[in-house]
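Progress report, Aim 2. The chain analyzed during this reporting quarter is listed below.
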Amino acid sequence: MRPTAVNAFTKRERQDRSSLGTPEMLDNGDAMRVRFEIAKRCARDPLPEADARRVKQMRHLAKACLEHWGLADMSDDVVLAASELVTNAILHSHGTEITLLISLQDDDLLRISVHDETPWLPVIRLVDGDAESGRGLQLVEWMTIAHGGAWGTSDGGATTWCTFSIAAERGRW
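Predicted structure tokens for the chain:
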């Protein structure tokens, strides 16, 4: 069963879907995966507008999954974490494809995984108070800890993931 918001894109976003793969529900509806293309670029190249819009599209998909699974109360922090992980992948990948996977694991964990073609490990940066960026992974770490989860990497750094405890959230409701 596909979350209804999976197809709820604006006109501009529908035009960009040519490089956005079709979201797939997996594992009897306990996981959603979408692969999308980004422009090949170097670190100094400007970010194409279509790539920047991918973050908004992934937020919509993450929220749709949570609503589909009856976990809408978790959406603020989970959607923010997904947004930060996707943003990092878009900004720092030197490849052309990113995969977002959101899954339920053993009825007590929600896992977000973002896979790109980055050949190095992401790290939490220490930034000064005036910096306009650089806090994404720190936010993900704080949110996951607050929700009884964790974050990390796998596949040599190509996959960054985080988990949220569903059981801890149900105790708050």
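Residues 105 and 145 are 17 Å apart (CA to CA). The longest strand covers residues 97-105. These observations will guide the mutagenesis work planned for the next reporting period.
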